[in-house]
Automatic annotation (TrEMBL):
<dbReference type="Pfam" id="PF00285">
    <property type="entry name" value="Citrate_synt"/>
</dbReference>
<protein>
    <recommendedName>
        <fullName>Citrate synthase</fullName>
    </recommendedName>
</protein>
<comment type="pathway">
    <text>Carbohydrate metabolism; tricarboxylic acid cycle.</text>
</comment>
<dbReference type="InterPro" id="IPR024176">
    <property type="entry name" value="Citrate_synthase_bac-typ"/>
</dbReference>
<dbReference type="InterPro" id="IPR002020">
    <property type="entry name" value="Citrate_synthase"/>
</dbReference>
<comment type="similarity">
    <text>Belongs to the citrate synthase family.</text>
</comment>
<dbReference type="InterPro" id="IPR016142">
    <property type="entry name" value="Citrate_synth-like_lrg_a-sub"/>
</dbReference>
<dbReference type="InterPro" id="IPR019810">
    <property type="entry name" value="Citrate_synthase_AS"/>
</dbReference>
<dbReference type="InterPro" id="IPR016143">
    <property type="entry name" value="Citrate_synth-like_sm_a-sub"/>
</dbReference>
<dbReference type="InterPro" id="IPR036969">
    <property type="entry name" value="Citrate_synthase_sf"/>
</dbReference>
<keyword id="KW-0808">Transferase</keyword>
Amino acid sequence: MTVLEAPRGLHNVVVTTTSIGDVRGDEGFYHYRQYSAIELALTGTFEDAWFLMVEGRLPSDTERAEFLRAVAPLRVLPGDVAAAVKTVAQSGPVQPLLALRTVLSGLADAVPLYESSEADKQTTALHLCAMTPTILAAVHRIRSGEQPVEPREDLTTAQNWLFMITGEVPDATSARAVDRYLTATIDHGFNASTFTARVVASTGSDIASAVCAAIGAFAGPLHGGAPDRALDGLDEIADIESADAWARSKITAGERIMGFGHPVYRTDDPRSVMLRETAQEIGGELIDKAVQVEKIIAAALVDLKPDRKLYANVEYYAGVVMELCGIPRSMFTPTFACSRMVGWCANIVEQSHDSKIIRPIARYDGPVPSAVVRIGAAQGT
């Protein structure tokens, strides 16, 4: 058997083929199928990109309207699911993502999980994607001592997300900003959670199981759990004059500055650039401070880490946009999960077409094994 050595983290290792999208890190560009993801975020809607993930093409005006009508009733939680959400939300200080994972793992009676056909898979995927924002928003409100807000059929995904969290229909500017964020974060290559989802899917398991595994990976602080911590860093900087000293103390102490650096991009993260511009359209002291601090931190990184190219990543300005739109910090990462659920499901469905299980090997580096041990003899029996 030929053994192929792979770098740590499978860096730059191609493990399969996909038609869903790609990230070209050296160019600062990524796309969904044949379309620039950033252009879709700026000129289209989240539902357009969602349709693209399902059908492989952008919808016509008629198809968009039909898609919205089909998805709207799926957002409403069946009675047993709503009861499970309430139970989980009241069970203690459970992180919203872990609550989501718990609820989704018990959907057997509400959603067909063992899909026997392509149509079954797509139905399950649509249910999961549509219900995820409703579940997460309900968990948040129950834990905040408030009643869940039912989604409205006349609102888009972004509008409903803000509505279900705050209880108020958002203004057009906030809804459009969140829509851009959701659209831009649907998929991003074979990141850890997407790869995890595909590994589970390769075993022939159901979509919900693969999604639950992806959520576990996504919840890690090195993956989806960074937008709120990036904003916390901005809070630590009392004023612009102290930003340079703050950044340099972090860097020299070997601490990571959340919101900077990316394992793929070696230039500006296009999502960060787009979200910065989106936040500037809203305006305010927070975005003004964020822009100035970004430049100061970037300069400090160039000075102290000249051999590494570290730029603001999506989390840096994602936190700013969500804060400006009234989303609580505890719901930053759940907002990310609402969009990435669509990408996970697209990858899971695609992986289900490949009958080969993903089964790599590891190189053993533990103690050298001795001669065969006969358990009975070793125990003196």
